[in-house]
User: Which sequence fits this backbone?
């Protein structure tokens, strides 16, 4: 059973950067008449941010990281590790974390790695980073998490394009000798690997001329083999089962009373699915913030983005008990329990 | 698990459906108001009422109301 308690580490601050360009779903052309209204009502996504061709995930994360480092007053030469979590790296190779080390001006004596995960990525990245720091040999770490999911989505696919949004985030993590740290439950089910997939363009199915052939699957759903395919029904069935189960397992293992938790930060899949999850766990609505309305499903960025966009003032001023739960592409999922106290949370940045 | 109760649960998934008009051999996609969201609601109903995890394939290969009923029953 993948339960881990990693002590002596704390989150010190969180920041987020989103693209300036806003697309309103009520104007999205692939919807049939009246469909936009129904889509917005069920998914909760009124608008989303799109990075465009010039901006990569790493650019958004870089800006978020610079702002956070600046407000934390962290000397850059004291940053020991950098983890970049994304499904939309700059290149197939090299790893984007290497590029980010140079762009951020971090020391050569930095551990830099990429992790390829989406919806569960912030939880997994935090687990790896906190584990690196926990024994005190490495002291300060940056977790850069984000996606420009709209790049591999077909604009003419109403099952993906209006749902997703682009965002980059930075989470600063530090060694603190007395902290209770993080408690995790992590899990995976590779039998669902094709529930969210870009079928061609990797090395299993290499890109070929037919990869670019656009096919209409149903009205409003046109894409090629290099575009993201989302099997909404399988993802839904997975999410409403595994997300509540993971939170329950975590609470049971570590004897956490869910009523004592101040905020539950779920991956922002869509409102309909997330509300099913919330109700299954009997969590009051005011403890479950949503960033879906203005930013959509931002893949790996949803949890830190929701913290920055929805509960920043509480994070800055209060001592909080938090459970976060990510679930999706992989299929991969996990939950984490931690406490925060007076975090540094810069205002959301537009780029 | 009882078929009549299942039909009642299924009718509740649709906004204005009258359970009396839904029969075991009714094609559920032909019921007025069917949409991709209704498909998700059927998955949610199976989860909530029967503690059964319906997959996308279960929905895709089902045609009639009875098909759905039998799949859920087989998974209980």
Assistant:
């Amino acid at each position: 059973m993948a339960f881990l308690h990693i002590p002596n580490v704390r989150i010190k601050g969180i920041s987020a950067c989103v693209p300036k360009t806003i697309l309103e779903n009520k104007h999205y052309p692939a919807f049939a008449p009246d469909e936009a209204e129904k889509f917005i009502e069920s998914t909760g996504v009124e608008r989303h941010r799109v990075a465009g061709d010039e901006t990569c995930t790493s650019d958004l994360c870089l800006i978020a990281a610079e702002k956070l480092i600046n407000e934390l007053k962290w000397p850059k030469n004291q940053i020991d590790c950098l983890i970049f979590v994304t499904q939309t790296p700059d290149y197939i190779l090299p790893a984007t974390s290497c590029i980010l080390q140079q762009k951020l001006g971090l020391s050569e004596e930095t551990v830099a790695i990429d992790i390829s995960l989406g919806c569960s990525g912030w939880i997994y990245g935090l687990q790896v980073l906190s584990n690196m720091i926990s024994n005190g040999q490495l002291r300060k770490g940056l977790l850069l998490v984000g996606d420009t999911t709209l790049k591999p989505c077909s604009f003419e696919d109403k099952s993906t394009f209006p749902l997703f949004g682009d965002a980059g985030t930075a989470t600063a993590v530090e060694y603190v000798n007395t902290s209770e740290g993080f408690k995790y439950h992590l899990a995976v089910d590779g039998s669902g690997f094709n529930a969210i997939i870009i079928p061609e363009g990797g090395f299993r199915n290499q890109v070929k001329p037919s990869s670019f052939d656009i096919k209409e699957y149903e009205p409003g759903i046109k894409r090629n083999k290099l575009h993201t395919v989302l099997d909404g029904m399988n993802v839904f069935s997975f999410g409403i089962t595994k997300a509540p189960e993971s939170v329950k397992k975590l609470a049971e293992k570590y004897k956490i009373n869910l009523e004592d938790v101040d905020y539950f930060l779920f991956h922002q899949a869509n409102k309909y699915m997330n509300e099913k999850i919330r109700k299954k766990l009997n969590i009051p609505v005011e403890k479950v913030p949503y960033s879906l309305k203005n930013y959509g499903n931002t893949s790996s960025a949803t949890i830190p983005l929701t913290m920055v966009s929805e509960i920043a003032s509480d994070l800055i001023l209060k001592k909080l008990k938090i459970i976060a739960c990510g679930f999706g592409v992989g299929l991969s999922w996990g939950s984490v329990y931690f406490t925060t106290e007076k975090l540094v949370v810069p205002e959301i940045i537009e780029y | 698990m009882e078929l009549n109760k299942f039909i009642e649960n299924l009718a509740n998934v649709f906004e204005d459906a009258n359970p009396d008009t839904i029969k075991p051999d009714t094609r559920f996609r032909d019921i007025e108001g069917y949409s991709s969201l209704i498909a998700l609601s059927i998955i949610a109903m199976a989860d909530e009422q029967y503690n059964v995890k319906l997959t996308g394939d279960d929905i895709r290969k089902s045609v009639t109301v009875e098909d759905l009923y039998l799949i859920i029953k087989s998974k209980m």
